[in-house]
Request: fold
Amino acid sequence: MKRKLRLVAAAAGAVLAAVAAASTASATTVTEHVVSPAATHFPQNKQNESTVAVNPTNPSIAVAGANDEIQEPDCTPATGGSSSCPFSPTVDTMGVYITTNGGSSWTQQILDAFPATQFTTDGDPALAWGPKPTGGGFSFGSGARLYAATLLGSPVFGPAKEQIGVFFSDNNGTSWTGPIVISTRDNPVSFNDKIAIATDTNPLSPNFGNLYVSWTLFTGNPTLNFGEAPVFSPEPIVIAHSTDGGNTFSKPVQLTQAANNGFVGGRQGSTPEVAPNGDVYVFWSGAIDRQSAVMGARSTDGGRTFARPFAVSLKSNNPSPLPGASFRDNSFPSADIGSDGKLYVVWTDYTSGHGVVKLATSTNNGANWSTSTAANVASRSAFYPAVAVNGSSLLIGFNALDDVAAGTTPGAGVVFYDAYYVLSSNAGASFGGPVKISVTHSDPDAASTNGLTGQFLGDYNGADVGSDGTFWFTWTDTRNGATCPAIDSWRASGFTTTRPNIYDSCPAAFGNSDIFVATVS
Reply:
């Protein structure tokens, strides 16, 4: 059974233990933790986009990752004037949180690349475990190798030309080698975005030990900035692989066309998965005839070549932002593969002012798909689902936000969200009802972009499952944050009034967003 980038995070100190019953699964114990570091104020109190991976040789060891601004400098000025909180070009932001006791306690660290190299770790954290390299191949006999992938910025070439780097650790994250840079700057305006990684962990696979990294490659636009531009930018999905434990990587293989315009549509949010027989699948958010769709591609030769993309399902994307909120949103897919080779893909689908979690499954290598609604929370719209599979057991974790009318103005107390999961014990044929994990709801207005112009919760959550059958789900949580009336008023003015100084005008907890993890067993 493979272990891939599982978008899930965890926490320091259990805050909830609950027992929930689901109609298609046995009684479950849910334990909630917060894993990210504490800080006194913004931006150091801002963490988001968590990932998680469970050690396949020891299910008590798990690692979570996040965009973590604990080392960023304070906003300026300290008092008086308008706050400015830009990312520092010389500060690393990939947070790594490790538990060795099943989530009861966690240690936190930042993967620092600067100033030892010209790079800074710069977001989109991705984690996976694989076998350790040996003289003649790979083996789990001496433990597992932990991989961490991240965007790489640099004060040399600037944030609009992000590269991709991979670190690895053979001692459960105590020390690291890297970054190994796997992208290039042949095109000086390339921007790499939305990394995901997977490893082949089946000793019977012909590609045992391979590491795969997929991402979106934005090219050809000199005005490009963080993957967004005032005009369409070419954006193919690409993937690279390593056969030597992450020391070297192949040239990226382009899986899709690059064209991105009003007729073709673009593509984003890729995620690779490895089947038990070593086949590699990549799923992403794309389009067919200008209709948004979940797409996929398959390799049968260890990632060297891929067949033509296939459609998983058409979809109706969540609006970005959802009504009553201002944080950006998406309907990127999350995927997993069962030990029998069955494919599972989930995403959010939004119609008539309400969003649900959809599930598509395939038992014939993606040739045909069956689609169903897996989770539906009354009067709340789902976002950022993540899936994990263990035999016939299936967990989907997600957040859900209050439904309000389109056009509702964002602000404090307008909408709230919580974390949920659904369980299936019959390989996704049916699910129990949604179970709320979070004991306290979150107000998205407590979180903020560094520019202070809107709310921010990152772009995804995640899930993984250990060899003991325990599921892990992670999300960005703002229950410990505070809203700021002065900032809300400035936003409501259309930014025509003077931007406040957050240290003078806002509660200390303004902007606080934490990484939470739940274990479900």
User: Anything to note?
Assistant: The two ends are 19 Å apart (CA to CA). The longest strand covers residues 137-153. Confidence is low (pLDDT under 50) at residues 1-27, 224-230.
